[in-house]
Structures are given as C-alpha cells and as structure tokens.
Amino acid sequence: MSKQVFITLPVADLAKSIAFFNAVGFTYHPKMSNDDGACFIVSDTIYVMLLIHERFRDFTPKAVCDTNQAVEVLVSIGLDTREEVDAIVARALAAGGTTYDEPEDLGFMYSHSFVDLDGHGWGVLHMTGMPGDE
C-alpha cells in the first residue's frame, strides 16, 4: 500500500475555505467532510483536511497560530508542468489568496507560491531533475 499524507490545517471560516480550495482545483471529498471540517484530495496519496479552530484544537493542546503574526506551515506540492504551476497560483489569486513572491526558474525547478485565506503558505513547483542527478 502506498503511504498517504494528510495535511491538517485550521481554518477560520470553513465555507469560505471550501470555496477557495474548490476554486484552486483540489477535489472535495464529501464522505470525509462534515460541519467541523472538509477533506480535499490533492493526489492519490495526498489529502488536505481543513478543520474549524475548535475541532483542530481536539488534536493539539497548543494554540492555533495567528498567521498575521507568524508562519504556521509551508506546504509544497510538485506539479507536472510549469503551466500547471502558473495556473494554480492564478486560480488561488482569483479566489482571494495572495502571493509573496514572483515565479522563480532555477533551471531544474520552476516554482511559485500562494497564501490561502487563513495564511497558510503553499509552494507549487515543477521539477525536471535534482541538482547532482545524472
């Protein structure tokens, strides 16, 4: 069985976050969603769980980070093409997200980023190889 990754993020407004990630292009998974949280499929092995703050606190004794003051997490996702990188950032920005950088082309990797409605940073990249790989 393949390993699966579940990224769990706190969100202030679940309905707005669902609309945002639908617009970004992630696939909503209704069977793993309810009034306290929503699941999105990123790939066959990667899922994003969005939980309202109260539900998120059930998983940790620590306070939810104020992303206006500090960085909570940076999530990076590899995509198949540069065009996909540009497209997902454009959809995120159109849906109300922001960005803090410009696209970067390092030859072996093309990357850009967006910040979702709750201040979580998302790096999106397309890699053609790793430095040192031959």
UniProtKB/TrEMBL annotation:
<dbReference type="InterPro" id="IPR029068">
    <property type="entry name" value="Glyas_Bleomycin-R_OHBP_Dase"/>
</dbReference>
<dbReference type="InterPro" id="IPR037523">
    <property type="entry name" value="VOC_core"/>
</dbReference>
<protein>
    <recommendedName>
        <fullName>VOC domain-containing protein</fullName>
    </recommendedName>
</protein>
<feature type="domain" description="VOC">
    <location>
        <begin position="3"/>
        <end position="129"/>
    </location>
</feature>
